[in-house]
Amino acid sequence: MDIIIKTGFEKIIHDIQFQPETVPKGTALFNSHHVINVEEHRKSGQSLWIEAQVIRQTSVQATPYTTKLDIDTARKVVDVSCTCVYNQSRKCKHIAALIYYVNHEESLSKTDYEQQWGKPSQRQLLQQKYCKGKYFSEMFPPKKNSTVIQCNKVEVSELEGSSALKLILLESEKDKDNKAIR
Ligand SMILES: [Zn+2]
To answer: InterPro entries annotated for this entry (predicted)?
Structure first.
């Protein structure tokens, strides 16, 4: 039976001689979440290959590269393939990125968790503060009975002359405010 594993990968080993700059480039792809849809394919309990899509660094809109590692029963990489043009040497950074992903997947999940749920961003904090209207009401607690008049003062006084309109506006604003308060 075929099984596809998408998380909790066991470590893999390899003896690919990457260029010195390739491994950090692969790690950077991993860190920027460019390695996606990682799948380990097993047949009759034996792991056969691991494949993934790697989003291009230069164009996130373009079709991601498909990167694949064939592994043996000792979880050693025995063959690789990648759809990028740099993989004639079979040592491209996408291969390095996928190997790094499989061996460091835990750190990715942890980072994700912290970024998305653990620590709200400055913007989220500000949004919360303003959306709930806490900020202003806490700084300027409404005075009894005079709230409506105070709120409308500036807006309505911008209307010059038309006192009838002013009155209507004042009344409608009063209603609105009363409803909002209740
Ligand atoms: Zn590649």
So the answer is: Znf_SWIM
CA 68 to ligand 1 centroid distance, Å: 9
Structurally, the chain folds into a number of domains equal to 1
Tokens of 51: 């494949």
Compute the distance from residue 72 Cα to the ligand 1 centre, in Å: 21
Widest distance between CA atoms in the chain: 88
Apex CA 173: angle with CA 167 and CA 179, to 5°?
140
Ligand 1 centroid to residue 65 C-alpha, Å: 7
Q: Is 13 helix (H, G, I), strand (E, B) or coil?
A: strand
Q: Which residues surround ligand 1, an ion (CB under 5 A)?
A: 82, 84, 87, 92, 94
Calculate how far, in angstroms, residue 85's C-alpha sits from the geometric centre of ligand 1: 7
Give the domain extent around 71.
2-104
> pTM of this prediction?
0.61
Instruction: Dump pLDDT digits (tens) for 20-73.
Output: 999 999 999 999 999 999 999 999 889 999 999 999 988 889 999 999 999 999
18: helix, coil or strand? Answer: coil
